[in-house]
Write a structure and sequence with these properties.
Length: 314
């Protein structure tokens, strides 16, 4: 068994957010923007701007961030640091990026690379993930879905208000169930055509309106692999800002064995033994098959099964 080579339990990406969200103080935007200790991260869609200091740093003084093109009029308050200083996410127009790409003191990259390669500490990764999801919501919610009027930003970025019909719009996060189906010493993994070559993972799908997480698990597994499942239990969750989801990690007991895949969703699904799954986690599988990267919740679900225990609380 290869579990001895798995090493320490890895950090679950995007879960290290440690600011005080200060939701009751979001009306104090102007004061927060004038705070001498205010700092901001800069996000242009999928591109994160980081400072190259002794280590990579996602936070800039607010005036510096504004100087790089960060939009303080669209600032989103992420929360307050332990010393009370506000932390913002500022959207950056794509037109500003060419001016920043050639600078030696900056690095531009995407959030997933930062997470996979652990290029910034977990707390900064959580901050960037929150900022990315919030700014993605703003970018899609410019106009009122009730009357079509242009919306105004309120509550330090946590609400958009319609000056015409009075509707209030709040940020959304889309629930996705991700489930490891198990049957004794076997687990069910699938392959989407979108995956990197050789990668297999837990099945996943969006929760539909009116559905419990458990019902969504059973429906998705039935739809994608024609497997009936019984007991379903919650293990862990992970913010997934692509663009603004929450992954709800579950384990489901299989009641049937015969797999028929939905070819629209998957290009393969099969049972893997604990031992085979372990080699995919350690990337020592004889056929070159691999599990998702350690920062992803799917890795945590598979590893919990391989080691016969629950993942640590996130
Ligand atoms: Zn309206």
């Amino acid at each position: 068994m290869a579990t001895g080579t798995l090493g320490d339990w890895p950090h679950l990406g995007y879960t290290g957010f440690d600011l005080d969200r200060a939701s009751e103080r979001r009306g104090e935007t102007r004061d927060f923007l004038r705070h001498p200790g205010a700092k901001a991260c800069l996000i242009a869609g999928d591109t994160m701007v980081l400072a190259r200091r002794s280590a990579l740093d996602a936070l800039f003084d607010l005036d510096v961030a504004a100087g790089y093109g960060g939009r303080t009029d669209e600032a989103c308050l992420l929360g307050l640091a332990a010393n009370g200083a506000p932390r913002f996410a500022l959207p950056l127009h794509a037109a500003s990026l060419p001016h920043l790409t050639d600078r030696d003191d900056l690095m531009l990259t995407d959030l997933r690379s930062l997470a996979v390669e652990a290029m910034v500490p977990p707390d900064q990764l959580g901050l960037l993930a929150t900022g990315k999801a919030m700014l993605a919501w703003h970018a899609r919610r410019t106009f009122c879905s009730n009357c079509g009027e242009r919306l105004k930003v309120g509550e330090s970025g946590w609400r958009r208000d319609c000056p015409n019909c009075g509707a209030q719009h709040f940020p959304r996060t889309d629930p996705v169930v991700i489930m490891l189906v198990t049957d004794g010493d076997d687990c069910l993994l699938g392959r989407s055509p979108r995956f990197a070559p050789g990668m297999w993972s837990a099945l996943a799908g969006f929760v539909e309106p009116g559905e419990t997480f458990e019902a969504a698990v059973r429906r998705e597994v039935k739809e994608e692999a024609s497997i009936e499942t019984g007991a379903v239990r919650y293990l862990a969750s992970q913010p997934w800002p692509f663009p603004m989801s929450i992954m709800i990690g579950m384990q489901a007991q299989a009641l049937t064995r015969d797999i028929v895949i939905d070819a629209n969703e998957l290009e393969g699904a099969r049972w893997f033994s604990r031992d085979e799954a372990a080699t995919m986690l350690t990337r020592t599988h004889e056929g070159g098959l691999v599990a998702p990267v350690p920062m992803a919740i799917a890795y945590h679900l598979i590893r919990a099964f391989v080691e016969g225990r629950d993942p640590p609380a996130g």
